[in-house]
Specification:
Length: about 350
Amino acid sequence: MFDRLEDLLHRYEEIMNELNEPDVTANQERFRALMKEQSDLTPLVEAYRQYKKARQDEEDSLALLEEENDEEMRELLKEEHAGAKKRIEELEQELKILLLPKDPNDDKNVILEIRAGTGGEEAALFAQDLLRMYLRYTERRGWKAEIMDANDTGIGGIKEASVLIKGKGAYSRLKYESGTHRVQRVPETESSGRIHTSAATVAVLPEVDDVEVHIDPNDVRVDVYRSSGNGGQCVNTTDSAVRLTHIPTGLVVTCQDEKSQIKNKEKAFKVLRSRLYDMKLKEQNDEISAERRSQVGSGDRSERIRTYNFPQGRVTDHRIGMTIYKLDSFLDGEIDEIIDGLITSDQAEKMKNF
């Protein structure tokens, strides 16, 4: 591990030297690549430098302790030595986590898709609750959200919705939300007070560009039609909505939130690229069983990952066995506690194979 850290420290110093050369900005592509690598290495290098200092402090305090005869000074040196040892242990753990292979998609924006599952109108209402939860979470993180498509039921629910979420680390945190979310509550229309169970599925896709996924235009059928959303008269009276059908895979993408057909087409292709990229990733993961076992849960979207129980006011994430009794605040976007738990569990699993 420490040989690897020394190599990375050496690489970091090489990058810094190159960035300080006067003509480095002449090649903008090279400059951006160096800045990205420097940014990625900085947390690890800073932690390693702290580790080396703590190790030196431990050795210095131990050497002084062997020479010191004054009991009061010996007690102070023992405290310093113990503090340095504890700091070394903490930094070793931090360095192991920082050295874990990074998901190449972690820094990407997200296309989040929500679909009502079993449960009829109640499932559609729950899907709307999830959409609001993620929009509120986006606000709390300082990210930006843009609803690309939403198919509402007319009485407050949604059949499906697609949202583009832009922000640093969006995918690194939201990727754990993929799966089936289950709700247990008494519907407003239920006169007997019976608890119903409904579900909605969430898919979290990293936003990708043309370079990562090439789409042959001949493989896509483009249909235009009149928007049915609440976009005002201009939207509803022009053929601005777009439906893309990717013939080889059968994937269908719709977008109707913009008044411009061109903009809707651009957004629809963005979603299609992300879905194709996601399919490619899943195929790769299916071939690498060890990698699948190292993830939190199987990642299978048919798997029930979380239950929202209204009568008990609780949220339970079944992958890590965590239950919190803060349902109202959770649905208001305060979901970091469970996401942090999922990240910690994921890191612990990967550490076993470190």
